[in-house]
Each structure stands twice: as C-alpha cells, then as structure tokens.
Amino acid sequence: MSIFDIFTRKRSAPVARERLQLLLAHERALTGRADLAAILQEEILAVIAKHIAIDREKVNVKLDRSDQVSTLEIDIEMPQSVVKAKAS
Amino acid sequence: MSIFDIFTRKRSAPVARERLQLLLAHERALTGRADLAAILQEEILAVIAKHIAIDREKVNVKLDRSDQVSTLEIDIEMPQSVVKAKAS
C-alpha cells in the first residue's frame, strides 16, 4: 500500500491499526549531488523511533533512484499503545 | 506544487533547481493518539538541516489534521551548491 492510498481510501469504519507513512523525494539538479534520500533514511527512522516503539518487522523501507529523482518510502505499522510517554 | 507532482511531471529539460519534498501521514487508531505529524515536524527539519543549508524562506511546511489522519508536507527548494561536505 503506497502513501497515496491514504488520500484515496474511503474509510467507513474507524482505523483499527495505527500507521505512519513517509515519502521523501529528492529532485537533484545537474550537479549529481549526493543522494539525500539514502543519507536521510536512517536518521529519519531514528527520529521516529524516539517517539514510537518500532517493531523492525513492521517497517517497510523502499529506496528508489533514477537519474534525477530519488525517493524514500517508509511505512510503519504501529501496535496499539506505542507512543512513548513524554519524558517528564 | 505537491509531492505527487514529482511523480507525474513530464520533464524534458534536466532539473535546474534542486528540491527536497517530504510527505508524512499519521493514521491514528481509535485511541486519539498524540499527533506524530506535528511532533516530528521540527525534528525532521533538523535532520535535513544537518545535510543541506536550508534557507527558511525557501521552506514550505503544511500540517493538516482530520479526525483520523494528520499529514505533514515539507517542500524545500535548495540553492545550487548546498550539500555540506562530510565532516572528514
């Protein structure tokens, strides 16, 4: 299921599963700059992991690279009570 | 221009402008969990800023929230030579 489905799916029943999806696209200019999608992948996952308990088996990461555009797709299905309480 | 445009735009000329776009969607279950899109916004920007010089005037951030889905859209236009050299 891609991130676009979120915006098209008709939902009648309330969401049973909690899900976080991220899509990052880096359009590179002529200079053939470093591929930010690949560079940012682990760091973005680390930021997310600070706030939700991530079960690595429920995380899908897809990295695609063409000559001008790289895309990173992260799809995380979250167990029910996962958001870590704020450190008080 | 939304992130979906990247995937539909027909491009003949090479990309003149370098661009980073991120779309994050948090589908919340019944529990009305905290809104991860809002929580992650600054932290994801901080991760990106570690790798590219960000001109805050060239950054568009859009946060939308419905009862079950929150979406965060970040659109960054990058000046030409921006990716910071790796700290050697």
Automatic annotation (TrEMBL), chains A, B:
Annotated SUPFAM superfamilies: Cell division protein MinE topological specificity domain
Any Pfam family the entry gives: MinE
Coiled-coil spans in chain: none
GO BP term, example: regulation of division septum assembly
Keywords for the protein's UniProt record, in alphabetical order: Cell cycle, Cell division
InterPro entries on file: MinE (IPR005527), MinE_sf (IPR036707)
Source taxon at top rank: Bacteria
Transmembrane segments: none
UniProt record similarity statement: Belongs to the MinE family.
Function: Prevents the cell division inhibition by proteins MinC and MinD at internal division sites while permitting inhibition at polar sites. This ensures cell division at the proper site by restricting the formation of a division septum at the midpoint of the long axis of the cell.
Name used for this protein in its record: Cell division topological specificity factor
Underlying gene: minE
